[in-house]
What does this fold into?
Amino acid sequence: MKMRIEEFNYTLPSSLIAQYPSNQRGESRLMVLHRSQGTIEHREFKDILDYFHPGDLLAMNNTRVLPARLIGKKETGGKCEILLIPSWNGTKGAWEVLIKGARKIKQGARIQFGEGLYGEVKEAKGGKGKISFSGQGEVMEILLKIGHMPLPPYIKREDEPLDKDRYQTIFAERDGSIAAPTAGLHLTHSLLQSLRDQGVETTWITLHIGTGTFVPVKVKNIEDHSMEAEWIEISEQTVKKIDETKQREGRVITVGTTSTKALESFSDTEGRVKPGKNLSSLFIYPPYHFRVIDGLITNFHLPKSTLVMLVSAFAGKDLLMKAYGEAIERKYRFYSYGDAMLII
It folds into this structure.
């Protein structure tokens, strides 16, 4: 039986969409969902230590968000805004971009972005395009100087200096994402050390978040939606840690939907994860059978999004929708800078 997009809808008051992070990293609230009992607890994020056992493995996404949003001027004088989509497989040439106000930008247009960086529009259609850059210095170096953090559109403000730190996880080290793996924003060095002190192992994977995570589902039946591919890298060391965790009957708990997608994408039907690097367009929705993960730390996601579908597949749709109802009632903070959920 096909699942309809409306089954993943809910109504959220705009006042609950977090516009700024918590005052201190890790000070968020935590909702805990127990899948087997169908119960919900309300805690603080620091209490997450209570739910880990010695021998568990915490898997995190170490991608780094690029300041990939550029604001420039066309030769005709009009303002122009683009979002660069990194090319993770090393191809050269024109960059793929998302263009704001694309109807006003035509092929061949030249844009000045400052710092001696110029772009020429090679393609422009339906909000997407390709731009080749010229000027002084490497594009990546110039991005670090003049690029803006690509905050999601539901954060109704310009990026500020605080976002360079807070819209990045403390373990971000691999450049390549246009959005943060937001569940990881709650983790602090001291909390990770406390987990290790109580016998929890940690490991990292890389999934560079692209447009696939955010493209709206526009079909009536979710099975008809196609995910855009995203780049994943999983090391032999991480695979070894997962194998050892399974052998000692520990649990693999992922931080975020991206870590989950990465491990599930690289697993076989027996749940064994293979090392490697490749693109994946895996779309997880109910009644998907999870092969690798036993627990998930996540944020609260947009209605009808592929992320809320993935989390529904893990928690159970009815329990998740009940949890979202309670979160709204208790005024949890939603989305990227919002509060957290642990599903075990």
